[in-house]
Amino acid sequence: MNTWRLLIDPPQSAAHNMAVDEALAASCRAEATAPTLRLYAWERPSISLGYFQRPDEIVDLDRCRDAGVPVVVRTTGGRAVYHHDEVTYSLVAPIHHPLFPPTIKGTFAAVARALAAGLAELGVAVDTWTDDRGGAARPQAGARSPFCFESVSWYEITLGGKKLIGSAQRRWKTAFLQHGSLLLTYEPEAAAPWFRAASGSPATHRVTGLNIDGRSFTRDDVCRALVVGWERAFDIRLAPGALTEAEAAFVAETSHSRDLAVTLVR
After folding, report:
1. Which residues are catalytic?
2. Residue 265: pLDDT above 50?
3. I want to staple 261 with a disulfide (CB 3.0 to 4.6 A). Which of 65, 214, 219, 227 is the partner?
């Protein structure tokens, strides 16, 4: 049975979280580490933007700075996410790993199966967004919005027809990084003040959190279930680990410079 590294981190700053994901990707690209699943949280409400988004067009950076709302840019693509009450996952693995197809869509599909298996451990049945022919769906209405959860795309997870998990991926020659947000609750009114009026407001009717209909799962509940689900879906063992010295040094060196709103709390 293959063994992967497991990291379950306490809430950390937005800049720290993005630095760790990049450090893990760099290690995997250099073939220095095995595949790694990381589950983490955010120490305060924060905003992450896709690599190709223009922050000044989407986020009111002055207001975020004044209110202490960190804003970071992910190394992955995709669109804006307001991070608050959620479990965030990241996966790094070699491009040519035998458990993953060689395409971005195939990788999304494999990860979706593992996410769905984890939620099934909680007794929650979710759907994977596909078209009527069983292939990857084109983005749902709202695809031009700057907000990640405004639309559902390839193999993303929905609950009751609404988006529950938003994910993004980046691929290099030797490795890929995929990370995403599993919403425990969804409060669009909390996110709206930090975005520019021209970018619109986060969706209200296309998104859901896990804790609806009387459910009250904690982050620990979800993390435990995801670990079991991933192990079963991929037939692997997830072994608790830690950052390598090189990864920790990368995080220490780079995390301080990532917050666009200059609101890092140490």
Report:
1. 148
2. no
3. 65
The predicted structure's pLDDT at residue 240? 98
**The whole model's pTM is what?**
0.90
Domains and CATH numbers, the chain: 2-257 (3.30.930.10)
Contact 18, 74 (CB under 8 A): yes
CA angle, residues 179, 45, 171, in degrees to nearest 5? 15
- Quick: pLDDT tens for 174-229: 999 999 999 999 988 888 899 887 665 555 668 999 999 999 999 999 999 999 99
